[in-house]
Amino acid sequence: MAPLGRPCCDFRMTSILTYTFKNLPSTSKWALRFSVRPLSCSSQLRATPAAQTKSKKTLAKPNIRNVVVVDGVRTPFLLSGTSYKDLMPHDVARAALLGLLHRTSVPKEVVDYIIFGTVIQEVKTSNVAREAALGAGFSDKTPAHTVTMACISANQAMTTGVGLIASGQCDVVVAGGVELMSDVPIRHSRKMRKMLLDLNKAKTLGQRLSLLSKFRLNFLSPELPAVAEFSTSETMGHSADRLAAAFAVSRTEQDEYALRSHSLAKKAQDEGLLSDVVPFKVPGKDTVTKDNGIRPSSLEQMAKLKPAFIKPYGTVTAANSSFLTDGASAMLIMAEEKALAMGYKPKAYLRDFVYVSQDPKDQLLLGPTYATPKVLEKAGLTLNDVDAFEFHEAFSGQILANFKAMDSDWFAQNYMGRKTKVGLPPLEKFNTWGGSLSLGHPFGATGCRLVMAAANRLRKEGGQYGLVAACAAGGQGHAMIVEAYPK
Amino acid sequence: MASRAIGSFRRFPASKTLRCPGYICRNFAGSSALLTRTHINYGVKGDVAVVRINSPNSKVNTLNKELQSEFVEVMNEIWASDQIRSAVLISSKPGCFIAGADINMLAACKTNQEVTQISQEGQRIFEKLEKSPKPIVAAISGSCLGGGLEVGVPAAFDMMLTGRNIHADRAKKMGLVDQLVEPLGPGLKPPEERTIEYLEEVAVTFAKGLADKKISPKRDKGLVDTFYLTELTSVAMGIPFVRQQIYKKVEEKVRKQTKGLYPAPLKIIDVVKTGIEQGSDAGYLSESQKFGELAMTKESKALIGLYHGQVLCKKNKFGAPQKEVKHLAILGAGLMGAGIAQVSVDKGLKTILKDATLAGLGRGQQQVFKGLNDKVKKKALTSFERDSIFSNLTGQLDYQGFEKADMVIEAVFEDLSLKHRVLKEVEAVIPDHCVFASNTSALPINEISAVSKRPEKVIGMHYFSPVDKMQLLEIITTEKTSKDTTASAVAVGLKQGKVIIVVKDGPGFYTTRCLAPMMSEVIRILQEGVDPKKLDSLTTSFGFPVGAATLVDEVGVDVARHVAEDLGKAFGERFGGGSLDLLKQMVSKGFLGRKSGKGFYIYQEGVKSKNLNSDMDSILASLKIPPKSEVSSDEDIQYRLVTRFVNEAVMCLQEGILATPAEGDIGAVFGLGFPPCLGGPFRFVDLYGAQKIVDRLRKYEAAYGKQFTPCQLLVDHANSPNKKFYQ
C-alpha cells in the first residue's frame, strides 16, 4: 500500500477497495478483472504531491505486469481506389505483419497470440487476423482473432492484448488492424438472397420455376454498406455537421484545422518522422513507400468546395473530413520482463485505458471529450502532464467540437457530471505530425497508428506521457495513456 | 415569393380553414433592436431584419388582434428602411412557429361582420407579404398551422380542405418549404436554444442570398406545384369546361366525405372558384365574408367547444400523484390488454403483459409488435426505435416482477368472478402503493372492488377499442377510491396520450350507459323492418362516423348482448325497446360481428365491400314487429336514436355520474362517435334547443312509452330557455 500516499480526494474509498482487491494473492483472477474491466474500478495511483512536482512518476502498478510496445509499423495509408485497389484485406494486413517481423526480427514462434481490428469485413476472410498471420508465415499453432469496434477496432485489439499479457495468459502478442475501402461487400437484396437460397433447396423443376416466377426486377437492386449509424440511419458526416453546428464551429475554423493537419503531416513526412511506415511491394505495381493522401492546399481552394452532407448550408466538406483509406498496421507488445529478457529496448509502456459510450445520435463523435478526463483521473495525471496528444481526426468539425466541449464548463456540468471543464489540450502538443485528416484513416488500423505516433513523438521530443483518444461509430470512444520507455 | 428554412410541423387542433391575422413577435438578446415593443421586435444582422415572434405568457404563438398592429408596424418599417434588403421571420418559442388563429378571439366575435373584418385585415397583410419587394424567409420550427402557414405560402388546395398536419420532410417534398434544418444535439447551450439560433443563422444566410440574387427562390417541383403551377395544369385550368369539371369533382368528393354536415370545405371551394373566375380581389372578398359566415355557424361553435373540452380533458385536475407510475403490469393479452400495452410501451413505460396461456400471450405480443411495425411502414418510427420500444414490453405467464409494479391494469374477460379471482391473486403479490385498475365497459367497479383488501386503490379505466386509435379513456371512481389513486390513473392515461373523462361508478358508467338505450332502439328499428344498410346510411348522414348496425358488428354482438342484459336488469324498462332475443339468436348462430366474420354483414379478408348476411333474414323475420308510421320517417328514425342517447347523457349529469357537461361531450364524441359537428349531447341541447328535444321525446313517448320520457334536468332546461349547459 506504500504508493497510495495521502488520500486527499473522493477517490480515497474506492482506491483502498481497489488496492485491497489487487493485493489478493490470487494469481490472475483479479488482475484479469482489472485489466479487462477498467471502467469498473478506479485505480488511483497517487505519488505524494512533493514527488509529483520534482520528477514525473512512472505509472507502474504493484502486482500488475508492465506491458510494453516493442515496436509498431504500418503500411503506407493510401486513398482507396489507388495502389491497393486490387488486393484483399488480408493482403494488406500481411504486408503490415511482414513489416513488423522485419522491423523487430521477432522469432515467429514466440508470438503467443495475434489480434486484428477491422470494420467492414470481407466475408471470405471474416477472421482476417488468422488469414493474414498464416500468409505471413506465422506458426499455424499461433491462434488469432479479429475484433471490431468501428474506428477504435485496433485500439480494442491492443487493449485485448494488454489484458492477455497483464493477466499472465500471454507474454507476446501482435496487435494490429486493417481496412480496405477499395473493395467492400455489396450484397444482393434480401429478396434476391432469399430466392437464391430457396432455389438451392428446391428439388424439382416445378419448384424452381415457381420460385423463379416470383422474381421481380427490383430484386436486383444491391445493398451497399454505408458509413451510417444503424440505430439512427444518419451518416457520420451528417452527424458531424450537426455536431459542428451545435458547437458553433465555423466552416473557416474547420478548413483552417484541416490545413494545419495536412501541413504538419507534410512536414513530418518530408523530415522522415513517420518512421512507422514500412514500404510495401504491391504485386503487379510499384513499391509503395509513403502515404498518398497528404495534400496541403490553400484556404481559398478549400473554401470553394460545396458541403458534402448537409446541402446547401452545411460546413463539413470533402476537404475537412478524413477520406476513405486503405491500409494496415501491426504492433508487437510484450510483457516488460519478456522483452528485456529477449534483449529488446521497448519504445513505450501501454498504461491505463478507458472505453466510453454515449448517445449515438447527438453525441456520436464526442468520445474523446468523455474519455480524456476519465483516463487521466485513472492514471492520476492532469492535462498538463501530457507531452504528446494523439487524437483521431474523423472530421475537423469533430475535433473542434470536442475542443469546445472540453473547454466548456456548461457542457461539463450538464452532460458529463463534472464540476468544471476538462480543459483544452495545447495545440503545440496536439497531433503535431499530422492526423487522420491528412495521413488517412483505414478504420480498423488507425488505433495502432495513434499509439505509435505518440510513442515515437515522446522518444523524439523527450516527453514522458502521451494521450491517445478516438471517437467511433455507435457513439463510443477510447483513450489510453502511453508512457515513454526510459532511455 | 418567400422561402423558408423550416423545422417540423406538429399536431395542433386548429384547422387551416381558420384564416386570420395578427402576429406575435419579440426581441432577441444579442441583436441590435431598433425599437422595443410589447410583443414584436426585430433586430438587424447586416442587411437582414430578423423579426421575432413570441406570444407573452403562452406556450404557443397564436394569431390575435392585439399584436396585429405591431406586426404591421414592424413590417412597414422593414419595407421603408434603406438598410434592410431582406427579412427573416422566426419564433422565439422552441417547437412552435404560429399555431393558427386565436380561437378565443374568434369565439369572442358576435357577428359575421366582426369576423369578416378580422379576416380582411389578415388578408391585407398576407397580400403585402406575398408581394413584398424584399425577400422574406420564414424560419419555422415546430407547429405552423392555419394562418401561420400563410405567412409566405400561397394557399394549397388539399391542405385547406382537410386541415391536415404535415410533417416537415413531407412539406419539403410538397414544395411548401425550401430547406430543412435538422434539430441539433447538445453543444455549448441547451439544444433547443441552439437549434433556433442555428435555424436563424441559416435563414439569414438564405435571406442574404435571395437579396443578392445568389440563390433563386424557385422551388423543386412539389405536389403544390403540380396542383397549382405546373404548365400543364395551368393550361388545363385555363379551359372553362375543364375547370367546371374539376370544381364538380372536388365538390363531389367533399360532399361524399362530409355528407354535407361540415359547411367549411364547400365554402372553401366556392372561394377558390370565385378567386379563379373573378380575380383575386373578388376571391379575397368572398373569402373574408364566407369566413365570417362560417365563424357564426353552429358547427363552428360546436367544434370550438370540442376543442376547449379536449384541452380541459388533457389536464390532470387531481394533481400529481404521490408516486409516479414507472412499472405497469397488464393482465390479459387480448385485444384490449395488448392495445393498452402498446400505448404504454411507446411512451417509455416498462410494461409487463401477463396472460394465462402462451398462445394468448403470443397473440398479444404480436399485436403490439404489429402496431409498432405499422408505424415503421408509415415512417413514423425507425425499425430501431420500434425495437427499443418493444423492449419495454415483458411477456409472461406468471406474477414475476409484480412486486415492483406501480399499477396493474386488468383486461381479462368481462366476468365478475374471474375479475374477483385475478384481483385477489394480484393483491397477494403487489406492493402496498400499487393501483389496481379494471378495464371493463360495464361491470360496476364497486362490485369488483368488493373483494379487495384495499378498495381505495381500486379504480376503473375504460379504454376503447382499438386502443391505439381511440383517444378516449373513461376513468371510473367509486366512493372508496382515493384521490391519489385517481390522480395516478389520470397521469398514466395522459402519458398514454388519452383524452380523459372521470366519472362516478354505476352500471355502464357514462359511455356504455348512453350507448345502451340507443342500441336498444337500433334493434327495435331493425325489428320494424328497416334494412341494416338503410339504418347505417341514416346514422352516418346524421354525422356518426360508423353506422349503427355496423357499430354492433364492430363492438361484437356477444358484448352488446352482455351489456344489454346487465344494464337492462339495472335500469329496467327504460332501457327496453328492441328485443334481446335478436342478439341472443345471433350469438347462438355464431354471428358475433366482425370478429367471427359474420354479423349483420359478412366480413371477408381482403374484401372491402360489405354484403348483408342473408342468414339474418330469418332471425329478423321471426322477431318482426309492425312499425308505427307516425314515428318512422327517416328523420324520426334518426331522432329516435339521438334523443335516447342525449336524454341518457343528461340523466348522467343529473345523477352526478358526470361531473361536467364538457366531459359528457368529450366522452360521447371521442369514445362513441357522437357527431362532432353537433359538439356532443350537451352542446347539441344548447344549440338545437332543449325544448325541441323534449318535444321530440314526448312525441316518441306517446308511441313507445317510458323509454322516451325526458329526464328532469332536460325538462328544466326546456322550461327555462336561459338555462344552458355552456353559459
TrEMBL record, chain A:
Pathway: Lipid metabolism; fatty acid beta-oxidation. It is an enzyme of class 2 (transferase). Its EC number is 2.3.1.155, 2.3.1.16. It catalyses: hexanoyl-CoA + acetyl-CoA = 3-oxooctanoyl-CoA + CoA; decanoyl-CoA + acetyl-CoA = 3-oxododecanoyl-CoA + CoA; butanoyl-CoA + acetyl-CoA = 3-oxohexanoyl-CoA + CoA; octanoyl-CoA + acetyl-CoA = 3-oxodecanoyl-CoA + CoA. CDD domains: thiolase. Its main location: endoplasmic reticulum. One of its GO terms (biological process) is fatty acid beta-oxidation. InterPro entries: Thiolase, Thiolase-like, Thiolase_acyl_enz_int_AS, Thiolase_AS, Thiolase_C, Thiolase_CS, Thiolase_N. It is found in: Endoplasmic reticulum; Mitochondrion inner membrane; Mitochondrion outer membrane. The keyword Membrane applies. The keyword Transcription does not apply. One of its GO terms (molecular function) is acetyl-CoA C-myristoyltransferase activity. Pfam families: Thiolase_C (PF02803), Thiolase_N (PF00108). Residues 67-337 form the Thiolase N-terminal domain. Keywords: Acetylation, Acyltransferase, Endoplasmic reticulum, Fatty acid metabolism, Lipid metabolism, Membrane, Mitochondrion, Mitochondrion inner membrane, Mitochondrion outer membrane, Transferase, Transit peptide. GO terms for cellular component: endoplasmic reticulum; mitochondrial fatty acid beta-oxidation multienzyme complex; mitochondrial inner membrane; mitochondrial outer membrane. Residues 344-483 form the Thiolase C-terminal domain. Heterotetramer of 2 alpha/HADHA and 2 beta/HADHB subunits; forms the mitochondrial trifunctional enzyme. Also purified as higher order heterooligomers including a 4 alpha/HADHA and 4 beta/HADHB heterooligomer which physiological significance remains unclear. The mitochondrial trifunctional enzyme interacts with MTLN. Interacts with RSAD2/viperin. Belongs to the thiolase-like superfamily. Thiolase family. Mitochondrial trifunctional enzyme catalyzes the last three of the four reactions of the mitochondrial beta-oxidation pathway. The mitochondrial beta-oxidation pathway is the major energy-producing process in tissues and is performed through four consecutive reactions breaking down fatty acids into acetyl-CoA. Among the enzymes involved in this pathway, the trifunctional enzyme exhibits specificity for long-chain fatty acids. This is Trifunctional enzyme subunit beta, mitochondrial. The lineage of its organism: Eukaryota, Metazoa, Chordata, Craniata, Vertebrata. The gene is HADHB.
TrEMBL record, chain B:
Its EC number is 4.2.1.17. Residues 328-505 form the 3-hydroxyacyl-CoA dehydrogenase NAD binding domain. Pathway: Lipid metabolism; fatty acid beta-oxidation. The keyword Lipid metabolism applies. PROSITE patterns: 3HCDH. InterPro entries: 3-OHacyl-CoA_DH_CS, 3-OHacyl-CoA_DH_NAD-bd, 3HC_DH_C, 6-PGluconate_DH-like_C_sf, ClpP/crotonase-like_dom_sf, Enoyl-CoA_hydra/iso, Fa_ox_alpha_mit, FA_oxidation_alpha_subunit. Keywords: Fatty acid metabolism, Lipid metabolism, Lyase, Multifunctional enzyme, NAD, Oxidoreductase. The record marks E150 as: Important for long-chain enoyl-CoA hydratase activity. It catalyses: (3S)-hydroxyhexadecanoyl-CoA + NAD(+) = 3-oxohexadecanoyl-CoA + NADH + H(+); (3S)-hydroxydecanoyl-CoA + NAD(+) = 3-oxodecanoyl-CoA + NADH + H(+); (3S)-hydroxyhexadecanoyl-CoA = (2E)-hexadecenoyl-CoA + H2O. GO terms for molecular function: (3S)-3-hydroxyacyl-CoA dehydrogenase (NAD+) activity; enoyl-CoA hydratase activity; NAD+ binding. Coiled coil: none annotated. SUPFAM superfamilies: 6-phosphogluconate dehydrogenase C-terminal domain-like, ClpP/crotonase, NAD(P)-binding Rossmann-fold domains. The active site is at E474 (for hydroxyacyl-coenzyme a dehydrogenase activity). The record marks H462 as: Important for hydroxyacyl-coenzyme A dehydrogenase activity. GO terms for cellular component: mitochondrial fatty acid beta-oxidation multienzyme complex. NCBIfam families: fa_ox_alpha_mit. In the N-terminal section; belongs to the enoyl-CoA hydratase/isomerase family. In the central section; belongs to the 3-hydroxyacyl-CoA dehydrogenase family. This is enoyl-CoA hydratase.
